[in-house]
Amino acid sequence: MDDLEDELDLRFHKGLNPDVYYRCPTSESLEGALRNELDKNAASFIPTDVVTEFIFATASTITIPVTQQLNLDALIQPADHPQSIAAEYALCRDIDGKDRPKVQRAIARSIIKAIQDTDGFKYSERSAQNREGGDGARFKYVCQDSFQNRDRKSNTKRGKSFDSDDREPEVKKQGPVVLPTYDCGGAIHIKFSLKRDAVNVVYKHNPIHTTREADNGLPALIVTDNGVAATADAT
Hints:
By secondary structure, the protein is α+β, with helices and mostly antiparallel strands. It has one domain: Protein Transport Mog1p, Chain A (3-Layer(aba) Sandwich). The chain is 21% helix and 26% strand. The chain contains 5 helices and 12 strands. α1 (27-42) packs across α4. The N and C termini lie far apart (56 Å).
């Protein structure tokens, strides 16, 4: 990339080293670029990390789904259909204090939706930073099926066994469904930057597991005394 100002400030995104950069004039162009990277990865014999950066310059547009428009009433009039806003407004030059992270979180979630619709995985917010006097918020979202998703309470629950004493309650598996978790490293980093006049998005994921939709087509799992077994399809 010729213009180094486009590159993500890696001080705030340690461990990331994007292989490819895309300038995205629209959310739809992000979807197309990501699909291209995923298709190239799928053609590889061994799955590897997809690490790609997408850059929305001030003239780019970001599609806002209906579900996020109520949080952007400072910028747009909510409607019953998706709307687009210029990335210039996403930088919130005239919005400060607590209103800025609210607006930028809604825009970040709009970008996340575009990514989820493309790769088929689901992501949850893991961290958010908005330093006072800073040039924009930073968000990190993690794949819900990854080890990074520490909030996956559906997998485990706390409870004391009958033979326990005053020790810490042991973690028991919650049944009947056990949700699998993978070391896929799935994460999306989004940074709003007034200094760079851009919204930087870094996507990292090793697609070693199937999407939620693909899993829904598989037989359900039940926990038995001998372990986990698949149930037969009803006929």
